[in-house]
Amino acid sequence: MHPSKGIQYTKSRILEGKKIILGVTGSIAAVQAFELSRELMRHGADVHVAMTQDAEKFITAVSMHFATGNEVTTEIDGRTQHVSFLGEYEGQADLLLISPCTSNTISKVAAGICDTSVTTMACVALGTKVPLMIVPAMNLAMYENPAVQRNVEFLKGAGVTFVGPDISGKKAKNAGTQEIVEAVITKLGKNRLAGKKLLVIGGAAREMIDDVRVISNISSGETAVELALAAARQGAETELWHASMSVSIPDFIKSKKFESVNDLIKMIPDENEYDIVLVPAALSDYSPVRQKGKISSDEEQITLTLTKLPKVLPQLRRTARFLAGFKAESTGGEELIKKAKARMDENSLDMIVANNILDVSEGKTKSKIILKDGTIETFEGSKAELAERIIESIAEHIE
Ligand SMILES: Cc1cc2nc3c(=O)[nH]c(=O)nc-3n(C[C@H](O)[C@H](O)[C@H](O)COP(=O)(O)O)c2cc1C
């Protein structure tokens, strides 16, 4: 095995068994191809690179050979790589991903021109219906050129998936590595939640003590982000409402911020709007009676009066067809299950994920996934793996 392949599966097995041809063309964004190929491999993909001559002005075939552990096609030769990778033969690729894709290559692919290794591969892929995904990379003026726009629309009509660009003001921002990898996972995945509207509510709520201080908690929001990613990978139309987070939210996930429990309650729609709502948020049970201004720092002792806040889960019930809550306790075993089931009944939940706080460390967790029908699954692994399992379990139950 090529030593570079050692990174395969280091993040997940979600692309296990998937062969991806990565077409690289002559944009400055070609420098991203090294990391993109490695990230796809971390999720288990086998990546084979085809490069145009202009791409070689920006990165070398040697680097991409090293990155992927596979030979790079810079020219179609007697091996007929376009046919062996994309023709209807054993070992046919699962996806042709052209990233970055220049305006030149988009237009040639739309016209059926096959004069580089990448355009020739695309020509075959469109004929054999191997999925083709294009990540355009060019400045806004090139992208808005009417001929390029016509070609983009033509290719979309022919079933090609476009990832980005994100147009804001006078800029066309290329999709980043994570957004591309997520789009690939969604494209090649089972899409068991396609057409479903899903909301994740996460992070640490903050209740104001005075105008500058808050009562909050140490929830990082990591589980919420992982759930949103796992749901999007299964094709769900995903939103993340979040309070304070200490992990970053990928910018391709639609998100809205709230501060306190009462802010969150105001955001809940009156009607049934979501197919699935998951609430790993650490929401406050009590709120201080807020004092105006700033409490003096000179007092020896101060007393805060806390009042009980309304419960959020019962209010979410009206907008969610499937509602999942989370319960962190400082007990485990039967006691944890008993408490979790009581919370499930109180709030008419469809699922509850419970854990002993002692079983959670950075990136790792041990949890019980409990369903309304009484099924209990014990799960141990990273937060990303737990999120993946929760989303799969929901898909199994709402199908
Ligand atoms: C420094 C530099 C950066 C470029 N960046 C882009 C780009 O981002 N997008 C694009 O469409 N063309 C870009 N070009 C122009 C392409 O390289 C040119 O159109 C070339 O013919 C593309 O060939 P290919 O599509 O076969 O790779 C750039 C050229 C240079 C010299």
Automatic annotation (TrEMBL):
Q: Which HAMAP family does this entry report, sorted A to Z?
A: CoaBC (MF_02225)
Annotated ranges, domain Flavoprotein: 18-186
Pathway it works in: Cofactor biosynthesis; coenzyme A biosynthesis
- UniProt keyword annotation of Chaperone present: no
| Keywords, sorted A to Z | Decarboxylase, Flavoprotein, FMN, Ligase, Lyase, Magnesium, Metal-binding, Multifunctional enzyme
A biological-process GO annotation: pantothenate catabolic process
Identify the stretch(es) annotated as Phosphopantothenate--cysteine ligase: 198-399
**Domain (DNA/pantothenate metabolism flavoprotein C-terminal): residue spans on this chain:** 193-396
Gene Ontology cellular component annotations, sorted alphabetically: phosphopantothenoylcysteine decarboxylase complex
Protein name, entry field:
Coenzyme A biosynthesis bifunctional protein CoaBC
Which family would the database say this protein is a member of?
A: In the C-terminal section; belongs to the PPC synthetase family.
This protein's gene is called coaBC
Task: State a single Pfam family of this protein.
Answer: DFP
Q: Where is this region: Phosphopantothenoylcysteine decarboxylase?
A: 1-197
The record ties this protein, via PANTHER family, to: HOMO-OLIGOMERIC FLAVIN CONTAINING CYS DECARBOXYLASE FAMILY, PHOSPHOPANTOTHENOYLCYSTEINE DECARBOXYLASE
Q: List the cofactors.
A: FMN; Mg(2+)
